[in-house]
């Protein structure tokens, strides 16, 4: 017997992909299609294809106009709840046993940034400065100047990057979600990907430098290469594209997947991996007409992929509830981790071990799952080292601190948790007013950014804590 929740997820996913694909007409033109309405009558816990959680109820409230995949309901608690959650409290000592404990962030250590008019799917710190970028369902990205957290929420401290398309000779808002963004290594360029099918490059002062348009439908992921010379994107059109960051021209389009491409990650400046709802992983190189390697083994769509710091092992996670490690040199599966009880949404490597700033620390891999847990995997031992189980709803994001000693996690229970890797204890916690889609650390490791379903972006200040 299929569990009811699992059946709802299957139905919803079918609707998501069907809606995205039928919106693409012949020759790549986009049709205006009526949203699939079966989802309207249910409130399931859902996985979608990448940074993909928008409440259908919220979508209806905004009067439609969104693009692409359906997302789970944003459980907004309202601003009144927010003030109640963040009264200053004494910080508890680290708790024991990977469970409860950890004190709430005091109010004077929390900055809530408001301005987005819809869910904020993603956020990322500039690698060189205290600029925080965010992408939202309101068809904008924003750059927040968080040099002084106390004033970061002021209008003059935020840049609004409007994602427009040309209609009748005029630039009009695309009304499509901005669900992917990435800073280049120098921190002077921001790339964004949208459900309108375009990637865009921006300067730190908010100027649109280039529009990259060759995908036929929503873009689900994009990444800069390490040199900052190319941008890689993945889309519903089953392709991945390498773009020249200077000219904005497509250098090569790869069409090896048979279903939407969900995620991409660079191995080096010319080699990358991509994953798809077709359950496969392709490793490709610029200039090559065929994949270097194809990995098959997952029994459901592959949600995310990440290369280890050395570029030797490729991690993948899937709706089949498994986490797998692949070796390109061997051309085979190295580890097949099976412990999560529901879909694994995302994974992150620790910035530790060989070829990192923390060479003497163990290398770990963190996985975030819809079973409301985060697991920490010891790659050398081939075993689970820690289970973090304080969340009550699906976990959508994890991020290691730059020193590798702490792990932040964000869940749709509206909480951000910060864990000690060494002890497995909950060190700090924050409860907001909307489900958390993304968490990220700044380059100095003293602030955590989080984006939420209620349209807020939050900065948690760990200095002096």
From TrEMBL:
GO terms for molecular function: transcription corepressor activity. Gene3D superfamilies: 1.20.960.30, YVTN repeat-like/Quinoprotein amine dehydrogenase. SMART domains: WD40 (SM00320). It comes from the Eukaryota. It is found in: Nucleus. Pfam families: WD40. InterPro entries: Ebi-like, WD40/YVTN_repeat-like_dom_sf, WD40_PAC1, WD40_repeat_CS, WD40_repeat_dom_sf, WD40_rpt. One of its GO terms (biological process) is regulation of transcription by RNA polymerase II. Its main location: nucleus. Keywords: Nucleus, Repeat, Ubl conjugation pathway, WD repeat. One of its GO terms (cellular component) is histone deacetylase complex. Residues 52-84 are annotated as: Disordered. Residues 52-61, 70-84 have a biased composition (Basic and acidic residues). WD repeats lie at residues 113-145, 178-203, 212-253, 295-336, 337-387, 388-429. Belongs to the WD repeat EBI family. This is WD_REPEATS_REGION domain-containing protein.
């Amino acid at each position: 017997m299929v569990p009811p929740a699992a059946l709802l997820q299957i139905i919803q996913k079918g609707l998501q992909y069907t809606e995205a694909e039928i919106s693409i007409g012949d020759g790549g033109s986009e049709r205006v299609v009526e949203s699939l309405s079966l989802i309207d009558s249910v409130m399931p816990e859902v996985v979608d294809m990448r940074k993909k959680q928008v409440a259908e109820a919220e979508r209806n409230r905004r009067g439609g106009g969104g693009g692409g995949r359906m997302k789970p309901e944003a459980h907004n608690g309202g601003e009144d709840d927010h003030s109640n959650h963040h009264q200053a409290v004494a910080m508890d000592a680290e708790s024991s046993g990977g469970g409860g404990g950890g004190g709430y962030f005091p109010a004077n250590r929390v900055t809530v940034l408001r301005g987005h008019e819809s869910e904020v799917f993603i956020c990322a710190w500039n690698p060189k400065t205290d600029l925080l970028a965010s992408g939202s369902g309101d068809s904008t990205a924003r750059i927040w100047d968080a040099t002084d957290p106390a004033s970061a929420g002021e209008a003059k401290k935020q840049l609004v990057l409007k994602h427009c398309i040309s209609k009748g000779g005029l630039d009009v808002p695309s009304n499509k979600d901005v669900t992917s963004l990435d800073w280049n290594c120098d921190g002077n360029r921001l790339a964004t990907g949208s459900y309108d099918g375009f990637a865009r490059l921006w300067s730190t002062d908010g100027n649109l430098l280039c529009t990259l348009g060759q995908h036929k439908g929503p873009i689900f992921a994009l990444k800069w290469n390490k040199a900052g010379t190319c941008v890689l994107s993945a889309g519903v059109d089953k392709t991945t594209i390498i773009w020249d960051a200077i000219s904005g021209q497509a250098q090569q389009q790869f069409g090896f997947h048979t279903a939407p491409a969900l995620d991409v990650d660079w191995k080096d400046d010319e080699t990358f991996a991509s994953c798809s709802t077709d359950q496969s992983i392709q490793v490709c190189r610029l200039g090559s007409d065929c994949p270097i390697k194809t990995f098959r083994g997952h029994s459901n769509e592959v949600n995310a992929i990440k290369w280890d710091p050395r570029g030797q092992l490729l991690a993948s996670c899937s709706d089949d509830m498994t986490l797998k490690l692949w070796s390109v040199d061997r051309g085979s599966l190295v580890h097949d981790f099976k412990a999560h009880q529901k879909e694994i949404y995302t994974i992150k490597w620790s910035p530790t071990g060989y070829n990192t700033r923390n060479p003497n620390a163990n290398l770990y891999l963190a996985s975030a799952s819809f079973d409301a847990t985060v697991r920490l995997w010891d790659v050398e031992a081939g075993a689970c080292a820690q289970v973090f189980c304080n969340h009550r709803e699906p976990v959508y994001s994890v991020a290691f601190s730059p020193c590798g000693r702490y792990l932040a996690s964000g869940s749709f229970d509206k909480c951000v948790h910060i864990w000690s890797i060494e002890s497995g204890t909950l060190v700090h916690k924050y409860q907001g007013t909307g489900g958390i889609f993304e968490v990220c650390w700044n380059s100095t490791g003293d602030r955590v950014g989080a984006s939420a379903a209620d349209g807020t972006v939050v900065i948690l200040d760990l200095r002096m804590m």
